[in-house]
Write a structure and sequence with these properties.
The protein has 652 residues and is mainly α. Helices cover 82% and strands 0% of the residues.
Length: 652
């Protein structure tokens, strides 16, 4: 049963800036943004770094989160919660702390402490108005008294819990309380009320779609059928409950369902199957550290061993269970053990021990109003005295047994149970019919939707086909236009290429012509200079013959020298050269602005691939001077001796 409701909203007096981080954390926890694995660690971290008022809320949450996984730690946080709330005189938090202590002690099977703290919760309710907390306390007191077999007290507090949960409209807790009341009525032998409450609880659980609660409700109904002799119905409900819990096999309810099915296997004589299921249930109980559940499983295993005629093993398990029940002070279960021991000793003809335990069980059952054990003890005492041939006592207990049995499972009660069962089955069928009609409406709507969708798909398909056809038609037109455009563009490109070739040929012919002119002019300069030098030499030889016209000769030689040194030929030559070699001289100046005219002329002749002798003739210098000039030119151009001057100038 769940007693805790996660409360996202903190008491208004706790809302202040210091709580900002706690509020953010709670929002993250509530919305699931913060992973469950980090939840407790985050709360523990905040606990150590928050002020006292914030710590109260965190201790409340930690006590809840540790309740089933680490109940001892849950109790430690609950006690810290109580102490801090008392220190701060915070009555609201103190009441919640009392409830957390009661819940922790309940899971630890310390029933006296449960009743002590639950009573404090109820007493503090006179000052506060927290029905959720008080209803949970009523339910804890109810359950603790069920465990002890105090069914009258359990019924009083169960009804108070039901009234309070109804007041606050908590439907799930209403159903849980009704399920517990059903168990109380069943234990008192009031099967009509037991089945009525069990069916009402199951209906609410089925609406919640909570498999754990549904399984619990099914198990409660199964136990009622089991106690009224309808084993086949009980088995059917127990198996339904087990199927509901396939994904929740490590839970208290699953362990209880396994025990119930194991009990049916025992009644059918399938002792090995029964013991196997009890072992599985015991493993879950021990893993959960639930002593009460483990003790009940040992008692049921003893019942199976007794049915399988394993007397000593059965007695050993009964006594082990009894020691555990005594440690948690569960009077109801101690009484059940006394009955079982009496029945076992009777089965093996140990009459004195059987009489002691059965009489003790009968007395306790009457005191706590445990109808099932009271009826069974009467029957066993009748059989005991019959075996001992004490027929007066045998008749006395038999007569008492018959009257008592008829009072709780007589014909009227069986009829009423059958009526309730019929009402429940009718309600289930009505629900199924409603669900079937709803399903038919859904299927009808789905068919209409499918037709609309199918028609829409066909329409869209046709539209798509038309679109594709139009697109292809348009694409063909575009492709045709592109082909025509490319054809014209190709023709234009071919025409441009033809014109370019013609122009290129014209340029090539022009360059060739200019090159020829340049070569011709260079050759002309060479021949002119050569001829003039020869004339000059001849004149000099003539002057040696002591001719009187030596002044005339000197004038002629002077004119020849002026002609040789004349720059006009070079200017014309330079024009021809630049026409073929654009920007040649500008590039030379960029390499070295300090190049002389003779340096530029030497570069020009090198560019024309002339040899040293030809250069000397054009420049009217000795061939040796050309070599010196080349050396100086290399240095001015920044070349090293190993560099090729002709290649360097040829690349300009």
């Amino acid at each position: 049963m769940s007693f805790y409701k996660f409360d996202l909203f903190i008491n208004c007096r706790l809302i202040k800036p210091a709580l900002y981080y706690t509020l953010v954390l709670k929002m993250l926890l509530f919305t699931g943004i913060l992973h469950a694995g980090n939840k407790i660690d985050s709360l523990e971290f905040l606990l150590s770094s928050s002020d006292n008022e914030v710590r109260l809320d965190i201790l409340d949450q930690l006590s809840y989160h540790y309740l089933k996984s680490n109940t001892t730690k849950s109790l430690d946080h609950a006690l810290d919660h109580v102490n801090l709330a008392a220190e701060l005189q915070n009555d609201y938090q103190l009441q919640k702390g009392y409830l957390n202590c009661a819940k922790s002690y309940y899971y630890l099977s310390k029933l006296d402490s449960v009743l002590f703290y639950a009573d404090r919760v109820i007493k503090s309710q006179t000052q506060l108005n927290n029905d959720t907390v008080s209803a949970a306390a009523y339910m804890l007191i109810c359950n603790s008294n069920i465990i002890r077999g105090n069914y009258d007290t359990a019924l009083i507090y169960g009804e108070k819990a039901l009234e309070t949960f109804t007041k606050i409209h908590d439907t799930i807790e209403i159903a849980t309380t009704k399920k517990n009341l059903s168990y109380i009525f069943m234990s008192r032998g009031e099967y009509e009320d037991a089945l009525k409450y069990a069916i009402e609880a199951l209906k609410i659980f089925e609406l919640s779609n909570d498999t754990m609660r549904i399984a619990s409700g099914l198990g409660t109904i199964a136990n009622i059928y089991l106690n009224t002799g309808k084993d086949h119905m009980a088995k059917e409900y127990f198996i339904k409950a087990k199927d509901c819990l396939q994904n929740q096999q490590e839970t208290l309810i699953y362990s209880q369902v396994l025990q119930s099915i194991a009990g049916i296997y025992r009644s059918e004589g399938q002792f090995d199957s029964s013991l196997l299921l009890y072992s599985q249930a015991l493993s879950i109980a021990e893993q959960m550290n639930n002593m009460l559940l483990a003790a009940k499983i040992y008692m049921n295993m003893a019942n199976t061993l007794k049915s399988d005629n394993k007397f000593h093993e059965a007695i050993r398990n009964y006594k082990k269970a009894n020691d555990m029940f005594i440690s948690i002070n569960s009077e109801k279960d101690i009484n059940h053990i006394n009955y079982s021991l009496g029945e076992t000793y009777l089965q093996y003809d140990k009459y004195d021990s059987a009489e002691i335990y059965l009489l003790k069980s009968l007395h306790t059952s009457g005191k706590i109003n445990h109808a099932l054990i009271y009826e069974a003890a009467l029957k066993q005492l009748y059989l005991l005295y019959e075996k001992k041939q004490d027929f007066r006592k045998a008749f006395q207990y038999f007569n008492t047994y018959v009257h008592y049995h008829d009072s709780i499972v007589g014909q009227d009660v069986q009829v009423k149970i059958a009526e309730l069962e019929t009402k429940y089955e009718t309600a289930k069928k009505d629900k199924q019919i409603t669900e079937l009609e709803l399903q038919q409406e859904i299927e009808k709507s789905e068919k209409i939707s499918q037709r609309i969708i199918f028609s829409s798909v066909i329409f869209l398909f046709i539209v798509l086909l038309l679109g594709v056809w139009q697109k292809r038609k348009k694409d063909r037109m575009i492709l045709k236009q592109r082909e025509l455009f490319h054809k014209k563009e190709k023709q234009l490109a071919e025409l441009k290429l033809e014109r370019s070739k013609l122009k290129e040929e014209e340029l090539r012919q022009s360059v060739l012509y200019k090159s020829k002119q340049l070569s011709t002019h260079a050759l002309h300069m060479m021949q002119k200079n050569k001829m003039l030098n020869e004339v000059k030499i001849s004149i000099k030889e003539l002057s040696k013959s002591k001719n009187k016209d030596s002044d005339i000769q000197r004038k002629i030689v002077h004119k020849i020298n002026e002609s040789i040194r004349s720059d006009k030929d070079w200017e014309v030559f330079k024009l021809y050269f630049e026409d073929v070699n654009h920007d040649f001289y500008q590039k030379l100046k960029k390499l070295n602005p300090e190049l002389t005219t003779n340096d530029q002329r030497l570069c020009t002749l090198i560019k024309l691939n002339m040899n040293s002798k030809e250069m000397a003739s054009v420049l009217n210098v000795a061939p040796v001077s050309i070599k010196s000039s080349r050396y100086r030119l290399k240095k001015k151009l920044g070349l090293v001796p190993e560099d090729d001057l002709e290649e360097f100038i040829g690349n300009i």
